[in-house]
Specification:
Strands 1, 2, 3, 4, 5, 8, 9, 10, 11 and 12 form a 10-stranded mixed beta sheet that branches. α1 packs across α2 and α3 crosses α11. This protein is an alpha+beta fold. The chain has a domain of 262 residues: Thiolase/Chalcone synthase (Peroxisomal Thiolase, Chain A, domain 1), CATH 3.40.47. The chain has 11 helices and 12 strands.
């Protein structure tokens, strides 16, 4: 079997809910990310692309009917280039990269495009189909933006609590204070803002034509412990989780070019990182926030390294509390985690976040001359994913 490598990465800016990208369809968001990443590999003949593997968590609106295929067509790829859409909720685009790496390592393709998209603004309301024609009663429309909907009655109630309540319980279980969560959020905004000021994201993010957004829209560099302390706790009257120490609702897309050992000649550029290992872990649905702990531990073991070898970590910040719980469980310096900001500041468009953290990790390894890095993400309904990258630049 061959190895698989990351050759190029790009994403859109991440817009806030109802913000600058709210009028952009998700299939157009995806096509924009695809076009931008392919612009980084101008020598790559599109006919050499073996597959497009695309992540999306919703798929209930304009992102339906295999949005990966729609994006490939809208981006102008030849109709002979196949595409598939995968759904592992928040981990969808990281799962897409994992699937692409396996396709390459098995020899089924030398070049695969991976990525993901989410427009949480444009997620529709849905109505369940009625069991009989012309019912006399009212019908309830469900928002598909985030969380559970149309729940099966056979699901245990403790599994189907809201994401916020699940993480309130997690914070209580591990005694993680609100003050610690707020401090984590302030750090995320500060580091994300500084990263943009330093130009770190300039070659990883391409604005969308016609949309007036050059940077991630939710970064608040003026956030302080005092300002966050005044926010309400919507999930429990005396809880710790607020809008300030949680990731926002976002719109955006990310894309990656992956290839085999011999793909450098096809793509026309050298790889930047090797996919060294990957792992998935599952546990009780309400405990999804700490699922990355064992996913990363498994991946490190498969890579044949330990936490002492790791020079950079990108952990998706769904909630500050779950990110802190994961960091506490790992034997890793917290300063190595999300050193260029995280999802609390940058945003978390569900299907696109995995591609973002993998791209950011690869660049962090290059700019700090570190060899090994971990990308990890928690996933609703009790799962976590992790990928180990090896810097090859």
């Amino acid at each position: 079997m061959t190895s698989s490598f990351l050759f190029a990465a790009n994403r859109t800016p991440f817009g806030r809910f109802g913000g600058a990208l709210s009028e952009v369809r998700p299939d157009d968001l995806a096509a924009s990310a695809l076009t931008s990443v392919l612009a980084k590999t101008p020598d790559l003949d599109p006919l050499a692309i073996g597959d497009v593997v695309w992540g999306c968590a919703n798929q209930a609106g304009e992102d339906n009917r295999n949005v990966g295929r729609m994006a490939a067509l809208l981006a102008g790829l030849p109709t002979s280039v196949p595409a598939v859409t995968v759904n592992r909720l928040c981990g969808s685009s990281l799962d897409a990269a994992i699937a692409a790496s396996r396709t390459i390592e098995s020899g089924d393709a030398d070049v695969v495009i991976a990525g993901g998209v989410e427009s949480m603004t444009r997620a529709p309301w849905v109505l369940p189909k009625q069991e009989r024609a012309f019912p006399a009663g009212n019908a309830t429309a469900y928002s598909t933006t985030l969380g559970w909907r149309l729940i099966n009655d056979r699901m245990p109630k403790e599994w189907t609590v809201s994401l916020g309540e699940a993480n309130e319980a997690l914070g209580q279980r591990f005694a993680i204070s609100r003050e610690r969560q707020d401090a984590f959020a302030v750090r995320s905004h500060r580091l994300a803002h500084q990263a943009w000021e330093d130009g770190f994201y300039d070659d990883l993010v391409t604005p969308i034509a016609g949309a007036s957004l050059d940077r991630d829209e939710c970064i608040r560099p003026d956030s302080t412990l005092e300002s966050l302390a005044g926010l309400r706790t919507p999930f429990r009257p005396t809880g710790t989780i607020t809008a300030g120490n949680s990731s926002p609702l976002n719109d955006g897309a990310s894309a990656l070019v992956l290839g085999s050992e011999k793909a450098a000649d096809i793509i026309g550029t050298a790889p930047v990182a090797r996919i060294a290992a990957r792992a998935v872990h599952a546990l009780d649905p309400q405990d999804f926030g700490i699922a990355p702990v064992e996913a990363a531990n498994k991946a490190l073991e498969r890579a044949g390294i330990s936490w002492s070898d790791v020079g950079a970590v990108e952990l998706n910040e769904a909630f500050a509390v779950q990110a802190i719980a994961c960091i506490d469980a790992w034997d890793v310096d917290p300063e190595l985690v999300n050193a260029r900001g995280g999802a609390i500041a940058l945003g978390h468009p569900l299907g696109a976040s995995g591609g973002r953290i993998l791209a950011t990790l690869a660049k962090r390894l290059r700019t700090t001359n570190q060899r090994w890095g971990v990308a990890a993400i928690c996933i609703g309904v009790g799962q976590g994913l992790a990928v180990i990258l090896e810097n090859v630049t």
